[in-house]
Amino acid sequence: MRKYKFSENIRINYKDKFAILASEESRSWIKVSKECLDILKKFLELEYNHDEIIDSFEQEQDKQYFGMLLDKLLEIKVLKDKGDLNNNRMMSLDWFVTKRCNLTCSHCCVDALDSVRQDLLDTEDMLKIVDKIADIGLESITITGGEPLIRKDIWEIISYLRSKFNGKLGIMTNSLLINKDNIKHLKKFFDDISISIDGVDEESCSIIRGNNVYSRVIEKIQYLKSEGVENISVSAILPNNPIITDEFEKLNKRLGTKPMIRYFSYSGRAAKNHNTILKNMNQYLKKRNMGESDIINWARYIPYNKKEVLPGNCGACIENITVDVDGTLYPCNSLVSSKYGLGNLLEIADLKEYLIGLNVNRNKGYKNLRKLKNCSNEHCNSCNVKAFCWSCPAECEDLLQNKELFMKRCEQVRNKLTDVVWGE
């Protein structure tokens, strides 16, 4: 007979006599009475099976209600069968193959090192990592850094990876090291190329990436297109203005590339350079007769009706995973911190089994991830809309480093979200 347990990927919020149960996996939620939730928790604690739960009620209407409630909670993946193992299927993996870079961008969230440093892992260890990641059923792998093309052995590594992995393979690059000698490898091995530009002209690009970068990146994109490379995305952190956003869209249309506007991270060099970047962006906007603004527009978090309210859907350790330059596993490429380390890949015999076995009792990094997803910090603990506030836990982690920015965002989002979620 079926017994149940709460899914790991749920978030619970309380207000007055009610509770909200939100599923990260299904992105669905339900409001129930706190009394009803307490009864359910007691049944699960006692390990009652389905029939024992229903038979615990005397009134037929209570039996029917709780039966329908159990069905709904199973449907939206708040509950699952007690015997179910972690059914996470890693679909994508980001691999930081180096921390070295030929640029020193002011916003670099990985705080990339200069190009003359030595990589932590040699070719032999990198090939060992390939052996471990290639057979866990991934659909896509993204090679990133630093600047991946700075490694002298990069094509030996990628060639070996391609011999073992038939899924989608992408690379994130600043493009400046692309040339006639490696273009054939890029075309042969990669399904898509993501290039960072961080601007719509030389001046805006220089705020993040330095002087005389924009035109060189444009030239590299045009070179790739002339060589028949079609699947190119161009990413940017931009001054927060709709005109700039429109210009970026038009730039990509002219280039025949896909635009990707990135979130401003507050980790790495971005944390210490935030004020300078903001100042320079606003000087740029002012020079172009545009109004000054914050780097991020929090209004995108504010829904206007219940249909727009969705629980966070972070795929970290559910669908995606990250390997750092030393072989350490992390939940995602935005949570590369010792706090969230899941173990070193070079020390793991069977990666697939290891990932299936991840749980809060065995792995400190995974436990910290769950706490982060549940907003278990001093600012959010008592919040009754925290299940919906952060679609990306890494963003919460970022802003926790800057209390002023954190509280500013909270003030703009919390009240409106409360009205929509808990209102009649």
UniProtKB/TrEMBL annotation:
UniProt KW keywords: Iron, Iron-sulfur, Metal-binding, S-adenosyl-L-methionine
Xref: Gene3D superfamilies: Aldolase class I
PROSITE patterns with a match to the protein in the record: RADICAL_SAM
Molecular function as annotated in GO: catalytic activity; iron-sulfur cluster binding; metal ion binding
Keyword Iron: yes
All residue ranges annotated as the Radical SAM core domain in the record: 87-305
Name this protein carries in UniProt: Antilisterial bacteriocin subtilosin biosynthesis protein AlbA
Source species: Clostridium oryzae
Gene that encodes the chain: albA_1
